[in-house]
Amino acid sequence: MTTSGPIDVPGAFADTYRAHGAAERQWIRELPGLAAEFIDRWSLRPDGPAAHGMASLVLPVRRPDDSPAVLRLQQVRPETAGVAAGLRTWRGAGAVLLLDHHADSGTQLLERLDAARPLGTVADDDTALHLLAELMARLTAAPAPPGLRRLDAIAAAMLDEAPRAIPALHDPDERRLLRDCAAAVAPLLDEPGDRLLHWDLHDGNVLAGEREPWLAIDPEPLSGDPGFDLLPAIDQRWDAVLAGADAGRTVLRRFDLLTETLDLDRPRAAGWTLARVLQNALWDIEDGRTALEPTQAAIATALLRHRRD
Fold first, then answer.
1. Are strands 206-208 and 195-197 parallel, antiparallel or unpaired?
2. Cα–Cα–Cα angle for 96, 97, 100, rounded to 5 degrees
3. What is the mean pLDDT of each run of 10 residues along the chain (309 residues)?
4. Which residues belong to the active site?
C-alpha cells in the first residue's frame, strides 16, 4: 500500500497510473490530499478500506446524517468528462445516484451499492443477459444532454485512422476483416443517434442496490445510437462462450436478444457493434499489437456473416 495521507492508496492502483506519464504520477501523489479535501468539504466520515477499479479509487464513507455513500476519485479525462451530466440525466433510474460532484477534479459522491454483488454473480447466463438488456433499454431511452461527446465525431475519427493502422496487422485475413468493419460503419455516419449511452455496460458494471435490484455504475457517457453500446454485453463471460459448441451462434443469440429488448434496427445495430470492434482494434494497434484480439475477431466474423446472409 502507498500511504501519504488519511487514506491508503492501493499499490496496484498506484502502479496502473504511474505506468502512464507525468500527469498520472502527479495525480497519484496528490490523491491522498484530494480525498482528505473532499472528506472535509462534504463532512464525510471514512467507513472502510479503499477499493479500486482500473481507473478510479472508491472510498466508503458516511454522510452527516450517517447514510452510507462512496467517494469516487478519478483523474479527469475526455471519456469521463460527461459522467456527472449522464448520471444527472438518469436521476437514479437504472443507474447509481450522484449525490454531489466537483467538476474541476471529477470527484463524485455516490450512493453506496453492494460491490460484493455485481451482476456477474448471477450464475445463469441467459438470466444475467436479460437483466442487462432490460437495464440497457432503460438507460438508452434517455436523450443525451447537451455537451457530451458525439458518436459521429468518434466514428469519423476511427474511419480516418483505419487506413493507416490496419496494415500493422500481420494476418491478411484480419486486415480484411477490419476493413469490412470500417466499410460497415461508413454509411452510418449521417445518422449517429442522440441517445444517452453508457459505453461500458457489462455484468461487472452493474451492482445490486436497495432502491432497485440492479444499478449501473462507471458510465463513460456519450451521445449516439444504442447499437454502439451492445458489444460489452455480447463479449462478457467469453470463457463460458468458448466452452460451448458454437461461439458464433452464441454471439448471434446474444445480439438478437439485445436488439429485440432495445427494439433496435438489426442491420444498424450490427454496424455500430462492428464500429466498437474497429475502435478496440485501433486501440490495440496503437498499443503495438499486430493481431486482433480473438474475441473481437469472432464477434466481427459472426456479425459480418449474418449481415451477408
1. unpaired
2. 130
3. 56 75 84 93 94 86 97 88 95 98 95 96 94 98 96 97 97 98 97 96 96 96 98 89 75 96 97 98 96 94 85
4. 200
